[in-house]
Amino acid sequence: METAIIAGGCFWCTEAVFRDVVGVSTVESGYIGGSVENPTYKAVCSGETGHAEAIRVAYDPTVISYADMLDVFLGTHDPTQLNRQGNDIGTQYRSAIFPLDDAQREEASAAIARWNAEHSGEKAVTTIEGPATWYPAEDYHQEYWDGEGQRNPYCLAVIPPKLMKLRKSFQNKVKA
Fold this sequence. Notes:
single chain; alpha+beta; Peptide Methionine Sulfoxide Reductase, Chain A; six-stranded mixed beta sheet; two-stranded antiparallel sheet; Peptide methionine sulfoxide reductase MsrA; Met_Sox_Rdtase_MsrA_dom; EC 1.8.4.11
């Protein structure tokens, strides 16, 4: 198994998408890229810690490559929005990739270049950050869409369109 850490706005939304991606075994919501040790959800939401809401994905590279993971990531959120995703505004909702080594850093640059080449007239503002310390989010944020999220009006408005985008644009990357 290998690990990818990405931030694409609300971690509930990004987690829901990646739980449906082939080769993914676990998805953990958390915080990364800030200056405060052991941040809380409330502190991160204030925008004052510098952390991004992110997910840490464990995946099988023999089933899905890191490059394909990044293509799914860039293709299922809006990488052109600086420090926001829709109504979620602030640096905690930034689009960012947190490579764990030089090879991942090179793949991240290549993925952003690929996305930009395929979307003439638009430019991804996704940052490549790190190294940085990962902090798991509180337990109630884990697997949120599968539980509380399906009763949350925000999630019901935002997550299904992302899942439809995944199924439409990445049909061969979706779990059966």
